Amino acid sequence: MFSSRERSLLLLAGLAALLMTLPVLLTSWGRPLRHLEWRLQDFIHARAAPLPAREEIVVLGIDDASLELRSAFDEDVNASRPLQLIKQGWPWSREVYAEAVRKLVEAGASVVMIDLMFTGPSNDHPEGDEALRKVIADHPGKVVLGANFTTIEGSNTSGLGASMLQKPWSGIVADTTPITNNIGFINYWPDDDQVVRWTRYHRSMQYEDANRPDLTHLDQMPSAAAATLALAGKTDAIPANDHLHWPRFSSPDAYRPLSLHEIFVPEMWTSNFHNGATFKDKIVFIGPAAAHMHDSHVTPVGEILGVQVHAQATGAALSRQLLHLLPWWTSVLLVFIASALAWTMVAFWRKPIETLLALIGGTLAAIVGCWWLFDQWNVVVDAVAPLAAFNLAGLLGLAYDFRLERKQRQQLRGYLQRYFSPDVVDLMLRDPEHFRTLQRGANRVITVLFSDLRGFTSMSETLTPEELVKQLNHYFNRMVQIIHGHSGGIDKFIGDAIMAVWGWVGSDTSEASIRQTAIHAVTTTLKMRDGLRDLNAEWQAEGKPALKIGIGIHQGPAIVGDLGSETQSGFTVIGDSVNTASRLEGTTKEYAVDNIISDTVCGQVRDRFVCRSADLVRVKGKTIPVPVFTVLHEIEHGPTPGLDTYEQAMSLYRAGSFTQALEGFRSAASEGLDDELTTVFIKRCEALAATPPDTWDGVFTMTKK
């Protein structure tokens, strides 16, 4: 299609165009690309090898079991003041947390972090404030309480909007500056899609000098994880800066909370916690875990509790498993490389299917590579933009080739459709050798449909030529759409008649395919009936006359070929089957129905459609009689009232029992089959019963087309 030089120019032009538009695309679609990037990174994060949970971290949850004291008997409650306070209802007295801290520290816990906010004095249990203050004072460097940044104005995913720090009440922990490690902020700032991926281990804060109000100092406010690690003597594991860090999460099942109240139940303290040995040298997080507290966050590995997020951040820092993002310029470089690779592949390979598979394979390989870097080296690659550029460049190149080829094919199709029906054109373009064989002549079993308008001649006398042509074209357009929509081809138009054919060009000549052509033809007949009904409704609303239609269908052998002179020819079918279909169309007038099918067609479609016997006829120009039928509707629409009685009467009629047949036809009419076809046979039976024929073979001979 292109010379080597032309394809090189195409490569350079496409690559240049992509690179020039890339900044615009990244500016306009930056947010959607970022969301896709997060989705891909979360997909990898959730399926990579999970970070093992740290054994030195334990979580105690204020869960539904604790709120309801499910594991405590009455004697346990009566013997334990913390359980008695819990039983009084939520919110608990702060003495409960004081007792929990005391019990855990005495059991050897390294640090206890309480993931709750105590921003003011208690109203219902003031004695609990003093108990909590005292236990913190008695165990210095063992307790961390939660603080919270509340946004004042503006916010962003990095948590740097103007905000105010809510500290624990000074009656519990002294408000000092610089801030001590007794408190840590418990905020997590989700991304735009409300997924928590990042954490800050510190946040810079300014505070005024108590002695010099004109001076301010910069302080590093630790997070709950950082404060806990500092008190546990793990300062080397804490990132020193206030940047965003992406911890590698463990499984969502890691750090599942144990029920807090169970530490106050003696039997469980002994059996479940081994007299406190479970907590020796452990970092213990206490936080909400009950469903109604709604303290959960969506993370890359799933939805987990807020207290688990603190444990995950602490565990990732202890394991030195913080993820590393590549510099921004690596994505730009990868975009250039990916674009150049895709365009080179399209420009010089020139194999569309293989190229498309290579694009898919390259995309999957890149994702696997990102997965490997994440799994082995904790490296996070921004891969969506390079992959988008890779596929965009490749698809643009393929689309250009396809568009050019498609344009050429459309030009050829437009030319051919001036002379051939769409199915013939499809065959010519898809399998030209097979079509050339058919052009030379071939025997095929075909299904032929003839349709003709009733009363068209008289109608034409009442309309102007312009109105007549407009209405007739409107009718033709609808009918041709229906025929083409059910795999039929238009052989020709004969005045107001249409000749449609099935099975004349396809290469499948099996019995199943031949049967399917009959089904298509009968389905088309019913759809043409519905289509004409809709057209008549439109025309009558406009004051135009309604039209009626007659359709004949037959299936049989015919000759297919390109017939005509050297100056004018056409691809068509000829043979006795065509003539029979034409004659059957004419019989619809005799029986006052809109369709007649031959027994051959009926045998092919009887299991799909309700077929009603019309007669045993000898059409004009034929000597052998043909059983003919009319199609009522699809079987799935249910039985037709009176049809069984009608068929029994038809058998009597053909046997020459005219009186019994007459009674049967009248019964069918009374049962609901009171139409013109039934009336035809009632009148025939009346005449034949009054004047019986000398000989009777049940055949009706047509004397006109």
Written description of the protein model:
- The chain is elongated, with a radius of gyration of 43 Å.
- β22 (609-618) and β23 (626-634) form a beta hairpin.
- By secondary structure, the protein is of the alpha/beta class.
- Helix content is 47%, strand content 20%.
List keywords for this structure.
705 residues; alpha/beta; Alpha-Beta Plaits; 4 domains; nine-stranded mixed beta sheet; seven-stranded mixed beta sheet
Low-pLDDT parts are: 154-160
CA-CA gap between termini: 56 Å
Rg from Cα: 43 Å
User: Could you say which overall geometry the principal axes of the C-alpha atoms support?
Assistant: elongated
Structural class based on helices, strands and sheet pairing: alpha/beta
Largest sheet: 9 strands, mixed
Mean pLDDT: 85
**Domains counted in the coordinates: how many?**
4
> Oligomerization state of this entry?
single chain
Helix share, percent:
40-55%
Number of strands: 24
Strand content: 15-25%
What's the number of helices? 23
Please write out the topology.
Elements: H1 4-28, H2 30-47, E1 57-62, H3 64-68, H4 74-78, H5 81-87, H6 94-106, E2 111-114, H7 126-138, E3 143-153, E4 162-166, E5 183-185, E6 199-200, E7 202-208, E8 216-222, H8 224-231, E9 244-247, E10 258-259, H9 266-271, E11 283-288, E12 296-299, E13 302-305, H10 306-318, E14 322-325, H11 328-349, H12 352-377, E15 379-380, H13 384-416, H14 422-430, H15 432-440, E16 442-454, H16 456-460, H17 465-485, E17 489-494, E18 497-502, H18 511-541, E19 548-564, E20 569-574, H19 576-591, E21 595-598, H20 599-605, E22 609-618, E23 626-634, H21 643-654, H22 658-671, H23 676-690, E24 700-701
Parallel strand pairs: 1-10, 1-11, 2-3, 2-11, 3-5, 14-15, 19-21, 22-24
Antiparallel strand pairs: 3-4, 6-9, 7-8, 9-14, 12-13, 16-18, 16-19, 17-18, 19-20, 21-23, 22-23
Helix pairs in contact: 1-11, 1-13, 5-6, 6-7, 8-10, 11-13, 12-13, 14-15, 17-18, 21-22, 22-23
